[in-house]
Amino acid sequence: MQFFLAAAALLLKPTNAQQLPTSRGRLRVLSDATSTHSNGQAAHLPAMESSSMSMMGIAASAKGSGSGIASGKSGKSVKSGKSAKLRSLTGDYRAIDTEDGTPQNLSIFCNEGICDVTLADARFSTCDKIDQDTNGGVGIAKGIPQGSIGNFTIDLYCLEQDEIVIDFSKGPTTTLQGDIEILPEGGLRRTGPRFFYAKTTVPEIKDATSKDVDVNDKSVNINGKFRGIDLDDGSSQVLIFVCTLHSCDIELYDTSFSTCKELVGQSFYTGVGVAKNVLRDSLDNFDIDLYCMGKEDREIDYDRDPDQILTGNLVLDRDGILHRTGPGYSYLKQSPNENDDTYSVYKNITQRFSGYDTEDASTQEMTLDCQGGFCDITLQDSSFSTCIEKIPGDRYLGGLAKAGGVPQDSLP
Questions:
Q1: Rounded to two decimals, what is the model's pTM?
Q2: Who has greater pLDDT, 346 or 243?
Q3: Cα(36)–Cα(325) distance, rounded to whole angstroms?
Q4: Is 33 exposed, middle or buried (0-12, 13-18, 19+ CB in 10 A)?
Q5: Of all helices (H) and strands (E), which one includes residue 93?
Q6: Sign of CA dihedral 332, 334, 335, 337
Q7: What whole-number distance in Å separates Cα of residue 357 and Cα of residue 5?
Q8: CB neighbours (10 Å) of residue 17?
Q9: Which tens digits make up the pLDDT trace of 158-169?
Q10: Distance between CA atoms of 316 and 321, rounded to whole angstroms?
Q11: φ and ψ of 84, to 5 deg
Q12: Average pLDDT value for residue range 295-324
């Protein structure tokens, strides 16, 4: 089993690991003027005037602004407006939707005082109230003046029954109160539903300036885990990089790959995108091989041809923020936090690592508790393929692996 430990930027590879493809030599040039879905087809999104994140490609509206780019309410701003000017807001924030217990992600991108906001939820209860057959959605607000972040609306687009991707040409399904309160400890609160959002991205991410950054610059450390929102269906998407000065291995995960749904149908599992040995100075022009899991599959067969070729082509907006120029998705770096302290697994440490199982696209977490030269280790998977093979019945059975009293010098 092979997966990436995002917290430590390490690869774990037990002896029975299934090998991923060694390399893919295909390169494809994509016109900057073309917006595409993750399957490479042209996206039918409403044309709009460019703002700080033109690649998001979707117009929204604010209170009192009519259609087009959101501009926020005019008039007196709330207290958080002054705080918003003093603190960098750009980042990804995570909350628990206390109305139904689902996780919710709020992404904010600010550039020269103008912010774009994207809201994603594992299950939008607002969409369910409108139509019980909806399948989630995504909230969009663009062009919000940073001083008006306490007073604006978010256009919510619900994914209707039998839809795989959102049809933005129909316009928003409804609007939500965005109204964000800037909290002193670094979090945010939406004052309408009173949801509290904790920042999940690395502190290096700041509000943008006009400075250009080259994604192919080898001096830029791109290693780590980046999270974004798939605007096709509102699902979460993760890019993972393990790079040397020469090349990168890249993995792409999505909680609901719309491309795989189109190719193999609805499935509990989704798929994994893989790009191996991508030259470090070619990150602006490369392909990702997408392997989908069918309803009867339990592990991905990497010896076969990929189900689809996705465009990986990246742009580095600023430190910690990437854009895929094909579908127009944006990703913020979540880990690892960079520091100058020496890290060692041979000292007394207690650490949790998270990663992705490339055999079936499930998530894994490992805890390591080492004291006095001995370690207790636990490994949890949202869907242990090993358990599924050993125990008949529920295909989606999870499990927990434990090892106690492991000599610390035997960890490698």
A1: 0.66
A2: 243
A3: 8
A4: exposed
A5: strand 91-96
A6: positive
A7: 10
A8: 14
A9: 988 778 889 999
A10: 6
A11: -65, -30
A12: 88
